[in-house]
Specification:
- With 54 residues, the protein is an alpha+beta fold.
- It is built from two helices and two strands, in the order ααββ.
- The chain has one domain.
- Strand 1 and strand 2 form a beta hairpin.
- The two termini are 16 Å apart.
Length: 54
């Protein structure tokens, strides 16, 4: 589900990012894959061709 930019942020989103990183396992790898961009948010650092929806 895509939410408008004004509805994003806060503790709920930080919890989602933490759960994603925990699910990825290795702390170093997960930190490299899910990066924090200061005052902007988070970005997933993988190519579009890497992600598959099952």
């Amino acid at each position: 589900m895509i939410r408008p930019e004004l509805d994003c942020g806060g503790a709920a989103d930080a919890t989602r990012i933490k759960r994603l990183r925990d699910g990825l396992g290795n702390q170093l790898v997960s930190t490299l894959l899910v990066r924090n961009i200061a005052r902007r948010g988070y970005v997933l650092s993988v190519g579009k061709d890497v992600i598959r929806v099952l």
